Amino acid sequence: MSDDSNRSQKSQVKLALFQIKSLISQKKFRFLEDRRKNMETLAALGWLPQDVPDVIYELEVDDYFSGPSDDWNSNDRNCIWEFGKYLPDEQKTIYIKLKLTDDILAISFHFQEKEIVYPFK
User: Fold this and answer.
1) For the chain, is the Cβ count within 10 Å smaller at the N or the C terminus?
2) Fold (CATH) for 3-111
C-alpha cells in the first residue's frame, strides 16, 4: 500500500471512529444479544451488554483491520467496520464487527477465532 493510500485509509478509519464514538455518546448504540457467541463471550468476561460501548469507545486506529464493507443482510453499503481489541487482563483479543448507519449496531463481539492482520500496527 502506498503512503498516500495508507494515509487516506487511516483518515477514513479516524473519521469512522469519531462517528462511532459520537453516536455512543448520544446513546445510539445497539448490541445483538440474540447472537450466542456474543453472549457467551460476555458471560466468560463477567460483563453485561451495557459494558460493550465502553470497550468500543476505547478503539483506536491501530485496532482496525477491515472496512468499510457492505452489509450482506441489507442494502446498506460501506457500513461494516471490523476491529480487534486486546484485553490485557484476559490476555485475549475480542473481534468486534460494527455497523455504522444512523446508530451503531454491534453485530459481533466475541473472542477472536481467526488470525487478525492489522494494517496500521
Assistant:
1) N
2) YaeB-like fold (3.30.2310)
Cβ distance 24 to 56 under 8 Å?
yes
Q: What is the pLDDT of residue 2?
A: 62
Task: Tell me phi and psi for residue 21, to 5 degrees.
Answer: -70, -35
Contact 15, 61 (CB under 8 A): no
Q: What is the pTM of this model?
A: 0.90
* Cβ-contact 96, 59 below 8 angstroms: yes
In the predicted model, what is the mean pLDDT of residues 85-107?
92
> Does 1 have pLDDT greater than 70?
no
Please name the residues in contact with 19: beta carbons below 8 A apart, sequence gap of 6 or more: 100
From CA 40, how far away is CA 109, in angstroms rounded? Answer: 10
